[in-house]
Amino acid sequence: MAARVPIGVLASGSGTNLQALIDACGEPDYPATIAVVISNRRDAFALERARRAGIPAVHVPRFRKRPRSEHDAAMVEVLREHGVRWVCLAGYMLLVTPTLLDAFPDRVLNIHPALLPSFRGLHAQQQALDAGVRITGATVHFVTPGMDEGPIICQGAVPVRPDDDLERLRARILQVEHRLYPLAVRQAVEGRLRLDGGRVRVDARPGEDNALWGG
Amino acid sequence: MAARVPIGVLASGSGTNLQALIDACGEPDYPATIAVVISNRRDAFALERARRAGIPAVHVPRFRKRPRSEHDAAMVEVLREHGVRWVCLAGYMLLVTPTLLDAFPDRVLNIHPALLPSFRGLHAQQQALDAGVRITGATVHFVTPGMDEGPIICQGAVPVRPDDDLERLRARILQVEHRLYPLAVRQAVEGRLRLDGGRVRVDARPGEDNALWGG
Fold first, then answer.
1. What angle do CA B49, B52, B54 make, to 5 degrees?
2. Is the Cβ–Cβ distance between A137 and B213 less than 8 Å?
3. For residue B162, is the peptide bond before it cis, meaning its omega torsion is within 30 degrees of 0?
4. Quick one: pLDDT at residue A63?
5. Which residue in chain A is spatially nearest to B129 when comparing CA positions?
6. Using the beta-carbon criterion (under 8 Å), do B213 and A213 form an inter-chain contact?
7. d(Cα A46, Cα A48) in Å, to the nearest integer?
8. At B45, phi and psi to the nearest 5?
9. With an 8 Å Cβ cutoff, are B159 and A211 in contact?
10. Rounded CA gap, B12 and B17, in Å?
11. What integer pLDDT is reported at residue B51 of this predicted model?
12. Disruptive mutation site among B134, B177, B179 for chain A (greatest number of A CBs within 10 Å)
């Protein structure tokens, strides 16, 4: 088996997508390993999840009076120290700057709880409820300087049910998120994603599907 | 059995969604009947489909130098002559005006080949291909004066496949469109759709699903 590719995960919150990646990396044939988890919040449960899994967990604080690029530079240092090749944003609530993106060109991924290009930005699940859509979902995409833009790797759709509240809808979307991110990371670290004019060409394996239904 | 509710269909093109409604209305328990089909194009195949099914087919030309509201007024006259209660846009390529909407308040439906609010306007399937999304679909919604806005009744999602061209994607979306429109019209004419602050509440029957997957 080839050496596993080291990835870094940035998270601000409870880190359920981090957990999905931890679980995937626990499988014998998974091609990635999480080398470090970074959070801007000292008390993020994501850091605790990392520690429990024996993964280095680093708090990189965001100093409000300093430029955001300095914060990203501090993260880049940590990521490089741990030999990270790919960076995964997982519930990371700050916009990343070119400082991070230039350090890992075309190697930063994000997951967003909507079917982009619908419902960019914060509170995507609530946006979907407010819009009255019957279908929403989640998207893994390459990160570009814009918010929730960037070439799309895979998406999963889920129904919005008449009796959904925010928590129920969020949970249904998370289920498909937890299938999407390990798929995207596998394809990424195996070199099977190719950027082609703002779109992503996938060298998919039999049985892989970059369009999921979580109905 | 209750009397069938007369609907009118406006179409500009070949009318495959019209055909899906014609087929649905041919079922013994379907609650609607198509009273008239109107097209702004004399040679629209939709008119021919109507004639073949024994449905009155009316060409209402659009005179370019007259206000669009006059065109809509002429259509309203035809729709009223035929006792129409609900109006379905099916590949109707002109924006409708308040003249039509006020004559049939909250009783005009449209089908759009995308998962609204993504990809409004023309060439929605090409927009989806250009955006590189993995999932797109179709939406039936109430018509409001804006383009492809208005409360959403039902949606169907379909995967975008790596080897899709416009025709293949269009065909896959049409398959789900042909399931969506008869469902929406049934719920509409049976009085099971309720507008509630820009959203649609559906009094759904067992087995009905306003979120479809056409994968």
1. 110
2. no
3. no
4. 83
5. A199
6. yes
7. 5
8. -65, -20
9. yes
10. 11
11. 97
12. B134
Contact (CB<8Å) A211/B118: no
Q: Which of A135, A153, A199 sits opposite B157 (nearest CB)?
A: A135
Task: Tell me how far apart the alpha carbons of residues A47 and A53 are, in angstroms, rounded to a whole number.
Answer: 10
**Tokens of residue B16, six digits:** 């495959």
Domains of chain A, earliest start first: 1-105 (3.40.50.170), 110-215 (3.40.50.170)
Which of B 168-207 lie inside 8 A of A, CB atoms? Answer: 198-202, 204
Question: Which tens digit of pLDDT belongs to each residue from B9-50?
Answer: 999 998 999 999 999 999 999 999 999 999 999 999 999 999
- Distance (Å, whole) CA A34 – CA A9: 7
CB A204 within 8 A of CB A186: no
pLDDT score, position A149 = 86
ipTM of the complex, rounded to two decimals = 0.94
From the list B118, B153, B204, the residue facing A118 with the nearest CB is B118
Give the pair of three-digit tokens for residue B109: 């439906």
Q: From B118, which residue of chain A is nearest by alpha-carbon distance?
A: A118
pLDDT of B2 higher than 80: no
Residues recorded for chain A: 215
Q: Average pLDDT, stretch A53-71?
A: 92
pLDDT at A156 over 80: yes
Confidence tier at A135 by pLDDT (50, 70, 90): very high
Q: Chain A 103-162, CB below 8 Å of chain B: which residues?
A: 115-118, 131-135, 137, 151-157, 159-162
* Contacts B134 to A, Cβ<8 Å: 152-155, 210-211
Which secondary-structure segment (H or E) carries B103? helix B98-103
